[in-house]
Specification:
The chain is of the alpha/beta class. Helices cover about 30% and strands about 30% of the residues.
């Protein structure tokens, strides 16, 4: 079993059944997203996979906050086998995420009373591309089962006013999501309805000279009024073959080698 486990400093992630194993995208989002540091907050992980981001969130608030609830939704039953074991093995009594083996669309309909302070997701992202012959990997990577429109609709129904939504996407899909949210925000100005607006965008580069590979994005759910400037950041992962100080500082509470 050890060969199927990815070890972090304070917890392990079994990945025996899942099609998508622990990856840099998930770790970056789990370390970068802003968690409201107040008691009795609620968080939701959409497409939890092995549960790694939910577990990172649990680590970040353990021994700091009380009354925290973390829910995790995963449509793939095989991934849920791993997530269920990883959650049960979590070292934080009373702070183990609750797992739901369903789609976020169905979860939203079944649990309309649940509202969250923070929703985060490392979602399927390919919009138009060649499908992987492995059905489980195709579901995990492609947006057929969870389009950007469906994702935004569910997030809007589940976030509390003032709540935040954090997501990681490749550059092309990230820019597409930003355009959609910008359009929805402009359409909602003056209508006294809550919509998402971009608060922070971090463009992740493998090296300084390369184009951004991933976008880490944070949105806030509020009544659309006057537009505020989005905080833009850049994170470079490697310099001369070594991890940068910024990358190691961001992830050192989790990775064993920092």
């Amino acid at each position: 079993m050890a060969g199927l486990e990815f070890r972090f400093k304070r917890f392990g992630v079994i990945q025996e059944h899942t099609a998508m194993r622990v990856n840099t995208d998930a770790v970056l989002l789990g370390a970068w997203m802003e968690i409201p540091m107040q008691n009795n907050i609620s968080m939701l992980d959409i497409g939890t996979g092995t549960g790694v981001i939910a577990l990172m969130a649990a680590q970040r608030v353990s021994n700091k906050l009380s009354g925290v609830r973390i829910d995790a939704v995963e449509i793939d039953k095989d991934a849920c086998k791993d997530a269920e074991l990883n959650f049960s093995n979590a070292p934080w009594d009373g702070l183990r995420p609750n797992l739901y083996n369903t789609s976020i669309q169905d979860f939203t309909e079944w649990e309309p009373q649940k509202k969250y302070d923070l929703i985060f997701s490392n979602p399927p992202y390919f919009i138009d591309s060649l499908k992987n012959p492995n059905q489980a990997k195709s579901v995990a990577r492609h947006s057929d089962t969870l389009s950007q429109g469906d994702l935004l609709l569910c997030v809007g129904k589940l976030l509390k006013p003032g709540g935040k939504f954090a997501v990681v996407l490749p550059k092309t899909e990230g820019e597409e999501l930003l355009r959609k949210i910008d359009f929805l925000f402009n359409s909602a100005i003056g209508k006294q309805i809550c919509v998402l607006s971009a608060k922070r965008v971090c463009k992740v580069k493998t090296t300084e000279r390369k184009e951004p590979k991933r976008y880490l994005m944070e949105f806030e759910y509020n009544v659309a009024t006057e537009r505020e400037n989005t905080i833009e950041e850049t994170l470079v992962m490697l310099n001369n073959g070594a991890y940068t100080t910024e990358y190691s500082k961001l992830t050192r509470d989790f990775y064993l080698y920092f």
